[in-house]
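Lab manual, section 2.4: Encoding a predicted structure.

Procedure: take the sequence of the chain (436 residues), apply the prediction step described in section 2.3, and record the output as structure tokens. A sample record is shown.
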Amino acid sequence: MESVITILSESEKELTLSFTAEEIKPELDAEIVKQVKKIQIDGFRKGKAPMHVIKRIYGDALEYDAAEKISNKLFWDNVKSQNLSPIGEPALVDMKFKPGEDFSFKVRFEVFPVIEIKDYKDNQIDIPDLVASDIEVNQEIKRIQFSNAVNEPADVVENENFVIDVDLQRISKEGTPIEGAVQNGVKIQLYNENVNKEIIENAKDKKVGDVFSFSFHDHTHHQHSENEENHDDHTYIYSATIKSIEKVTLPELNEEFIKRITREKASNETEMRENILKDIQSYYDSTVEEMTDLQLEKKLLENNQFTPPSTFVENYLNELVKQETEKAKQEKKKFPDVQKLRESLKAKAENSVKWILLRDEITKRENLTLTDERIEEIAKENSEKIGVSVEILTNYYKSDEMKSQLLTGELYKFLKENNRINKIHPDEYNKQMKNA
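Recorded output:
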């Protein structure tokens, strides 16, 4: 017998087994005997028909069937003797057999990849330098005030702190109404930053029953031919008839209001602003941490190219599709086309599996562990943030699932300490992401 292993990739191998006719004959004969015992031919008891009768009826089919069956046994015998440890389902990709001649076959199978990790330290990772400002604080205070505002009927629109209910009629450039292009009972919050500025300007000083017009530009892409795309800039003009007006009265930022809104965490505007600024910055910091993790993953995957086992990728992809399908079901949305969904998620599944394998390899290489002392330390760090006692958190963190998550957190901590995290202006970062 001759055995040859061909390495196709880090995750895939091919085993070729070759036998002389003399070597394979005992295996074939034993398998044929098993098959003959199961054959029922008219005029003979089951398994008792003479071989020449069976041969006349079945020809060489028994030999070919026996060859295919023993190839499976011979493969697994060889796998065991060579400690090959296949994963997934091996595939017979080639078999050369003729009765009385030499016999060979090839089986392709996947293995857990041996990854020679490299370049996971001393990389530069660019992340946005997100800093909370008074602009965001003012926007949040405005949002709080408007969400607690009181609306009262009014006769005239004085400024943007009004809500108007209008009937809309789309009109041509000449002012002629376009048939069927009508929307009744449209409520417009003039204070909303997303409202067309032309509406705010033209609605000012208007009363119930008054009419004003406004326009907006719609930049759309119209396909003209297979290789040509035309970018049209459409202007839509509307006539708005005001049906009702409400004045929005904002609450004063006094002590009573601030204490109620902040649940006693602040008693004046200064304290409220400080807390909002701190909360926004905390959110930014958390966002940047996540972005840093993702950028590290991306960089390390770029530095370590390898083929992950398709079995793992397929299983991960199945789970992603399942999650998306269940999400659509919960949100009562139309079920996605499964084939298109699989295609759109395949790259994500492949990269996720590659990162899991790479992550585990770095963890082993660097001997990263999670001691009881470190778990208690993490519990102390998070106790005040989430309002749970250190003891309860410590016990929770010691569960197998949480220890695995915490160990992954230790890996990211290690990577951040051993790579250069470069903070750049958010605009520059967005530009980089756009050009990536």
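Check your result against the sample. The mean pLDDT is 90.
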